[in-house]
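User: Thanks for the earlier help. One more: DoxX protein. Can you show the sequence and predicted structure together?

Assistant: Of course, both are below.
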Amino acid sequence: MRIFARAHQLPPRLAAAAFILHSGADMIGADEERASGLHAMAAGAYPFLGSMEPVPFTRLLSRAELALGAALALPFVPSLVAGAALTGFAGGLVGLYLLTPGMRREGSLRPTQQGLGVAKDVWLLGIGLGLVLEELGKGGCRHAGH
């Protein structure tokens, strides 16, 4: 596993980091109303989150986003690690989009106006998968004698 990110990996890592860090920082001081809204949406898609209280859930989500954003922004965090974390996070967002009523047009994957803000997060999934697949592919080539 490489210790430093390759130069061509930095632009997508930094682009994703900027959005995720902004989101995490924006949630730090979320009031009860905002925390309740975020929690309700998440628990609607992922019922196991329903047992958490809204404010602690939002604080935990905020910290997770800040940690993920930092991992993506810091080039010494291996791209396989940062990419795997981003893939998991983005997979959760895509799941939220797919599981939340009203996010998609009837019988379609196309977003409604309400779902557009979450549907666009598919690019985060693409960046994460790209980082992971590149790192796994490079390791495979090395072992194959390339």
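User: Great, one quick takeaway?

Assistant: The chain is about 70% helix and 0% strand.
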